[in-house]
Design brief:
This protein has six helices and six strands; from the N terminus they run βαβααβαβαββα. The protein has 194 residues and is α/β, with parallel strands linked by helices. It has one domain: Flavodoxin domain (Rossmann fold, 3-Layer(aba) Sandwich), CATH 3.40.50. Strands 1, 2, 3, 4, 5 and 6 form a six-stranded parallel beta sheet that branches. Helix 4 links the parallel strand 3 (78-84) and strand 4.
Amino acid sequence: MSQGRVRLAVLTGSPADSRTGPAVVRWFRSEAEEFGQFDIDVLELAVDPLPVVITQPPGAEAARRLAAVSARLAAADAFVVVTAEYNHAYPAVLKAAIDWHTTEWYAKPVGFVSYGGRSGGLRAVEQLRLVFSELHAVTIRDGVSFPDVWKQFDEHGEPCDPLGSNQAAKVMLEQLLWWAQSLDEARERRPYVA
């Protein structure tokens, strides 16, 4: 952590031309900035997606793409995944970015902002919790969910219910901050070994 501020990597798999994804990311980034405890790095994984086939060592093209992502993940003290739900799961570009990395996630907290249809992306988040548990990360209990997301943001990309969504974000960010600081102190005293 730099001067007590937490380095927060926000991962999103939504393409820039998505109807709703960019609005959700912009809203969350604004909330995290207003919270005031984080240095925020947004990784737009759909811009230059990592290959879905994992090879060791990575081929030249995969290595080029990894160079743009890996160091940013390693530098993070905490993560928030902003994800849509597709067929009860999360996007492939997000899966590829997670699976190409291992130690970057160790003993670090992960929060979730999800959106979608009726479930608000919660089924995608439940799958992500299992994946991050396997990667020795700590998932935050409370998150933010936007069911029927196309009804949740106005024509300016602002939440229709700012009180509810902003409060949910604040609760998650408070928990994320606590876990990020606590895990950082623990890793400092005793390096984490998986």
